[in-house]
Amino acid sequence: MSYLPHTDSDRKRMLEAIGVDSIDRLLEVVPEESRYPSLDLPPALSEMEVVRFLRGLAEENADLDHHPCFLGAGAYRHFIPAVVDHVLRRGEFYTAYTPYQPEASQGTLTAIYEYQSMICDLTGMDVTNASLYDGASAVAEAALMAARITRREELVVARNVHPAYRQVLSTYTQGLGLPIREVGYDHQGRMDLASVRESLSSDSACLIVQHPNFFGCLEDLSAASELAHRVGALLVACVDPIALGLFRPPGEEGADLVVGEAQALGNPLSFGGPYLGFLACGQEYMRQLPGRLVGMTTDTQGRRGFVLTLQTREQHIRREKATSNICSNEALVALAATVYLAAMGKQGLRQVAELCFHKAHYAARQIEGLPGFSLPFGEFFKEFVVKTPLSPREVNGKLWERGIVGGYDLGRDYPELADGLLFCVTEMNPKEEIDALVRALEEVR
């Protein structure tokens, strides 16, 4: 399907909509000498020479296996068991495409069904899908889903939800007539429940909360659920699946839609992608779920089989009833999450969560004891905010001089936290690395 304008009038309308009068105006931000460059390519290389050249480029990247890393903010470094990569590289999975033909795709469909089942167990929900790009698109799709279910327009979102998620939500709703109202956070870094109570109304489709939130702080989902349901709105809970190894499932806390980023489940950082968004809900809302659903059935001989089901989807029959335009098949990334969860098991996932929790609190106590450093917020999971005596940029620069990847500069998104760094500690950070971070911070004052 082509999304390019086909006629001059189409192009004119598109240009008018974005406020420019010509295609050339769009290119003005590109330096003139770079707009239509003449390619002066070097001589061709042999395969061996290309491999050597690319390996040299790759070695210029920071290797997190040799550099202590305390940067999270939505992308996390967790241990990945070897079995995950072993299964992913099997040809029948690695080269599989969208399973349109169930008779030829039983392995892929079975894996997706297992993934859906595990996400439902984690979140305490009835149904989940298997084809969202990342946590950001999952939040946006859940908001649109809530608007369809409630037939309301206003979206209420906590300001301590991931800034990138809120930006994607704004992009999704642009032009749809769905106003977004943001509510602030209190002195503990948690959603301000008084502001939520004032902001929610009979026009509100949903309240979007992140738990743990972007600052790493733990939210009260039960209180948020009560406030949302009081006015007939839905609660959208954005969660860290690793944290669910330790905390109660959001479905048991009153969440109506549960979303999140599953990159932490067996997938590497990979320079930002591909990642994996999930969206789970109660059975009463499953017809409104975007993306794909795999169901289990029996054939005419009573044999178990797996199929794509409830296909009022964007690529299938009855397209006018499609719930979304999203059509990515994230099955390989979902497979990694499935193998990870199967390999770790319930106790293994809990142990990972406990290690993250206790190591992060150990690091926070040590840093808080340094002169000039303080922790402004309260209870947290594996990320915490630190106020620094120098600018975050200076602190991170000095940490990198010592070979340490520092935290996230919160001033980029929260001007009131211009002196704040968001540090992340996972099971991958041994005590020696944490102690090295503390010593380095003590030296950079």
Outline the structure in words.
- With 445 residues, the protein is α/β, with parallel strands linked by helices.
- It has 2 domains: 82-339, Type I PLP-dependent aspartate aminotransferase-like (Major domain) (Aspartate Aminotransferase, domain 2); 346-443, Aspartate Aminotransferase, domain 1.
- Helix content is 37%, strand content 13%.
- It has 14 helices and 12 strands.
- The strands form 3 sheets. A 7-stranded mixed beta sheet has the order 1-7-6-5-4-2-3, with helices on both faces. Strands 10-12-11 form a 3-stranded antiparallel beta sheet, covered by helices on one side.
- The radius of gyration is 24 Å and the shape is globular.
Cα(first) to Cα(last) distance is 57 Å
The name of the CATH topology of the largest domain is: Aspartate Aminotransferase, domain 2
Determine the fraction of residues in helical runs and give it as a percent range.
Answer: 25-40%
Number of structurally distinct domains: 2
Q: Name the overall outline.
A: globular
- Biggest sheet character: 7 strands, mixed
CATH architectural designation of the largest domain: 3-Layer(aba) Sandwich
Structural category is alpha/beta
Low-pLDDT runs:
none
Describe the structure concisely:
This protein has 445 residues and is of the alpha/beta class.
Write the layout of secondary structure elements.
Elements: H1 8-18, H2 23-26, H3 32-35, H4 47-58, H5 82-88, H6 91-94, H7 106-123, E1 127-128, H8 135-150, E2 154-158, H9 163-173, E3 180-183, H10 193-199, E4 204-211, H11 221-230, E5 234-239, E6 257-261, E7 277-281, E8 294-298, E9 304-308, H12 331-368, E10 383-387, H13 392-401, E11 408-409, E12 420-424, H14 431-443
Parallel strand pairs: 2-3, 2-4, 4-5, 5-6
Antiparallel strand pairs: 1-7, 6-7, 8-9, 10-12, 11-12
